[in-house]
Amino acid sequence: MTKEELFQELERGIANGEINREELVSRFNFAPMAPGYGEEKPNDSMSFSMNKMLYVLGSAVVVIGIIIFFYQIWDQLGSFGRISVTLGLGFLLAAIGSFLLKQKSNDNIGAIFHSIGGLLVPGGAMVTLHEMNISADSLWPTTITFGFIFAFYLLVNLIHKNAVLTFFAIANGTAFIYLLVESMTDGAYYTHGDLYAYLTMVIGISYLFLAHAFRGGWNRTLVGVLCFFGSAYFLGAAFSRVFDSDLWRMGYFLLVVGGLFLSAYLRSRAILVVSTFFLLAHVSYITGEYFADSMGWPISLVILGFIFIGLGYISININKKYIRS
C-alpha cells in the first residue's frame, strides 16, 4: 500500500467517525503543536459555530414555515395530500439528507435535511394512520408504526454513522418501548404508575450507558443530552416512588448521592445539576413531611436554607475539582 493510499484510508476513517484526532495523538504520542500551527484559529472556530447556529436557526424556520403553511391549507387537502405533505415530505427530505451525507460526509447540510425529515416522519405516520382510519380502536398500529420508524433510523444510521440519525433512532425507539408496554397492558396508562416508573428508570439507565459508550466516538455530541435525560428519567421516576414508601424515602438519598459520584466519574455537569436538583427536592419533601409540624415552618425553612447552601457549596466544589478541571 502506497503512502497516498494510507492517507486516503486515514481520511475515510476520520470522516466515518471510526477514529478521531485525540485517538491519533494518544496512539502515536504526537507532541503538541505550536500555537497557530494546525490548530483552529479563533475566527475559524467562531465561523464554524456561527455556521452551525445558522443551520439550526434555518431548520427551525423551515419547520415552522411548513407547519404554518400546511395548517392554512389543511382543510383543502384530501387524504392523499395530507399524507404526501407530511409523511411523504419527511421521507423525501430524509432521502435528500442521505444523498448529501454520501456526497459531502464532512458537511452538516445533509444532517440538517435529516433533522427536518426526522421531525416530519413521526407526525406524518400519525396523519397516515388517522386518514386511513387504522388506529381508532387499538394502539397496536401506532406501536408497529413507531417500530418501523425506529428500525428505519437504525438502518440509515448504520449506513451514514451520524449523530443526528442516532438521536432520532433513540427518540423513536423510546417511543416504541412505551407504546409497546401500553399495548401489552390492560386499562389506561395512569392505572400502571408503578410499571411506568420502573420502565422510565430502566430507560434512564440505558441512556447513561449509551452516553458512556458514545464518549470519544462519532456520537460524542449526544453525550451531554443523554446524561441529562438519563439522570432526569432515572431520578425523576425514582422520586415518584418516594411518596408511597418509607423504604424509598430513605433509599432515595443513596440514589442522589450516587448521582453526584457518577457526575464526578463521568465528568458530566448535566448529571451534577440534575442530581443536585433532586437532592434539594427530596430534602425539601423530607423536611416538610417530618419536621414542619414538630419544629414549625419558620425554623424548618431556616434549616432548609442552610442545607441548600451546603449542598450548593458541595455541588460547586464537585464541578470545580472533578468536572471543570
UniProtKB/TrEMBL annotation:
Pfam family, one: DUF2157
Protein name (record): DUF2157 domain-containing protein
Record-annotated membrane-spanning stretches: 54-74, 80-101, 108-127, 139-156, 163-181, 196-214, 221-243, 249-266, 271-291, 297-316
Swiss-Prot/TrEMBL keywords: Membrane, Transmembrane, Transmembrane helix
Highest taxon, organism lineage: Bacteria
Keyword Membrane tagged: yes
Secreted as UniProt keyword: no
Species the sequence originates in: Candidatus Nomurabacteria bacterium RIFCSPLOWO2_02_FULL_40_10
Domain DUF2157: 22-155
